[in-house]
Amino acid sequence: MAEKLMKYADAVKQFDPVFGLETHVELSTNTKLFCPAHIEFGGEPNSQLTPVSLGLPGSLPVINETAVDYAIKLGLALHCEIAEWSQFARKNYFYPDMPRDYQISQYDKPTNGNGYLDVELEDGTVFRVQIERAHIEDDAGKNTHVGGADGRIEGADHSLVDYNRAGVPLIEIVTKPIEGAGERAPEIAGAYMRAIRDIVRALNISHARMEQGNMRADVNVSLRPMGSKEFGTRSETKNVNSFRGIEKTMQYEIRRQAAILADGGEILQETRHWDEATQTTAGGRVKSDADDYRYFPDPDLVMLHITKDRIDRISKEMPEMPRERRNRLQQEWQFSDLEMRDVINADALDTIEATVSAGASASGAKKWWLGELSREANAKGVSLEELDITPEDVAEVEKLIADGKLNDKLAKQTVAGVLAGEGHPADVVKAHGYQVVSDDGALVAAVDEAFAANPDVVEKLKSGNMKPMGAIIGAVMRATKGQADAKAVTKIVMEKLH
């Protein structure tokens, strides 16, 4: 049965939303957090296992040093206080996809705490999100429910479990309650998640592919009457794995909770699940508090000691952060705020930068990636990076145009050939015989034919009306099968008119 919802605009007029995000970032280490099992996305189920990741008796965990360094990098990027001593704890809970039936996480002594991230919204507004902690933990495996609708456990007749992901290192970034967002709460949540994605990619500590589960978020939402300081009861929507899904989850929960509160009802503190197909959340289980997990220090792991020298060394290796990089590139490329916003929204910054590095102009690179190639990616339902064309290919096409060897039409046909798997631009040009006709004799003959076929147009041009010029150029293009140099054609036409 459909739940009662209040209009979003009415909900944020009557109630003040408070939200928090728990972001799980899967680290791109070669091996798991506490054992040497290899990590590979899409591997044969239950093939990436060791006695430690299976929780076999007598097996002992050993911390992955690279994962700790990655955690320090992220802590620095999020302006966190990095603890000299931190501790791993056992989080006890029924985990059907965790062989040892408890998670190794950090509780009261996390590696990173008390940080912040300044999030820039589309209109240039900067909103500061306070970070409570960014702690290290290992991931659970993956359950696949068979026989039910949409892979859910409801109605399933059996379940399969893949332990490959069990033990993969994660960093969980937990915000403090985010207040003062008002009606922009979903927008801020989406912008925050995009900023986290950009940071972990810049640090090269995670692939951050949400569709592969490298990055996902638990979305906590509560409402309180306007003017109240006391937090309302929150819901927690688990494992939302898309930016749009996070924004839609928040909008739905605000509308759902507002309708309940307006009718005098009470919000149940529970976990919920986002359903992309119906664009709704659905109730799960009553939410447990920390006490219910029975945290205690893991007796198999000593406390983690991070020295100041280690932090200083890693600090010197830190790359340029995404926000500073965007500002620098915008100045170098001389893009307006609107142009740069279009680049960011299209997730094209990396590809454009790589194309410019390969020799293209910034404006030319932007034209291709936000034009023809963006339409192609949307049609195929893939990202720009997944298209069968590289930044080097695009730069090569731009050079062929600059050298006068291709016009716009031939360039588009060349790009289409590359996307179709016909090779690099030079291979496509050679295979199809693409070549701009710049021979004056051939072009003069084609212009003469166009003049003869369009005497009324010629008369208008002679009278000073240049609007019909396209008819002559179009006729020449048809005669040369689109291979004429438009600039050369225009020059010949003007010479003949005068």
From TrEMBL:
Annotated coiled-coil segments of the chain: none
EC class (word): ligase
Q: Does the keyword Protein biosynthesis apply?
A: yes
> At the top level of its lineage, which domain of life is listed?
Bacteria
Q: What is a GO molecular function of this protein?
A: asparaginyl-tRNA synthase (glutamine-hydrolyzing) activity
Q: What does this protein do?
A: Allows the formation of correctly charged Asn-tRNA(Asn) or Gln-tRNA(Gln) through the transamidation of misacylated Asp-tRNA(Asn) or Glu-tRNA(Gln) in organisms which lack either or both of asparaginyl-tRNA or glutaminyl-tRNA synthetases. The reaction takes place in the presence of glutamine and ATP through an activated phospho-Asp-tRNA(Asn) or phospho-Glu-tRNA(Gln).
Q: Under what name is this protein listed?
A: Aspartyl/glutamyl-tRNA(Asn/Gln) amidotransferase subunit B
Lineage, opening ranks: Bacteria, Bacillati, Actinomycetota, Actinomycetes, Bifidobacteriales
